[in-house]
Design goal:
about 400 residues; three-stranded antiparallel beta sheet; alpha+beta
Amino acid sequence: MSEVTEHAQAEEQVHPADPQLFADERILPLFERLREEDPVHLTEDSPYGPYWSITRFDDIKRVDMDADAFSSEAYHGGIMIDDDIVGKPDSDFFVRSFITMDAPDHGPHRKAVNQIVAPKSLMNFESLIRSRAQTTLDSLPVGETFDWVDRVSIELTTQMLATLFDFPFEERRRLTRWSDVTTAEAGSPLIESPEARIAELMECLTWFKELKAQRIGGNDMDLVTMLANDAVTKDQPDNEFLGNLMLLIVGGNDTTRNSMSASVNAFHQFPDQLALLKERPELLGNAVAEIIRWQTPLSHMRRTATKDVEVGGKTIRAGDKVVMWYYSGNRQPDVFEDPDRVDITRENARHHLSFGFGIHRCLGMRLAELQLKILWEEVLKRWSHIEVVEQPKRVYSNFVNGYGEMQVRIHA
């Protein structure tokens, strides 16, 4: 057997969606190799079935922008590589949300809740976000080791989620749990079985159906009231109500939560950038975008081809599963110079893929940026730096590019 043939066979076995690669932080070298050698790569056999990996920036953006050729529809499997997350249309568990709807359904369903992140709403949220950040940061033990993920990232994002849904504040950690369960991989320590996952999501539905019933006819600016009274969503079936809840809980939790953790890790790894930010605080807005690029809170989005289409010289057939690896595109060196480095002066930092493109561009991106910006405005007022005292523990997931634990020590 020739060297070329052996190499080709090895390439065919590449499975970049293996969650362990993300948990072990071994995925970026593989993405680098795919970008250089096979940027539109077919994995023919995996626990998720066959799938295409799109790893280069321009190809990812092209697929994301073409909603006609590349479907997000739940009936085709949704927006994650694991079809079981949305379930099967003919099974007992099947959910559909506006991110897993194509046109014409998508637009009206998204519009039902988009006022929650309108500029006026963001202005109203700003003082509340700042007050909570101040309270949370002032409660932290300076000079002692603690878990930043739990004490800050989860706490602040869960408080915001409780506000967005007007969910009982003392029960807010349920929202964190439901977010984690929604995206949990088979084999994840978070859930015992697929049946256990579904049972917890049914509990989520029960909680929110009760809240929805209470808010019919209301006019408050919270997500449950909006869904309960919008003409398009008020009478939607349970599977669509639950689907929208899962989307909004994950969307409001994971991007912000993991960016908050990533920001500490970023400035720990690149202390020169923290020093520069202290000298030039006007760079904070760009620093927020750069951290979101560097971290890429959601590693991928998936589509299903609706017709035969060529991408990067490869023919993708109708019905094929197509995975856009945002994490790879955000680390492409001919798009972002020295991409593995955090550079808060990077001129094209805002051109990152993390929020997606096209009709499914992240609804809550401005709120996520605002929360991260305010957090660091308050951090910079208080301390010299935040030291990461041991290697952070990553989440076992090919979707949520997150931190399970990050032990830190604050230096006054």
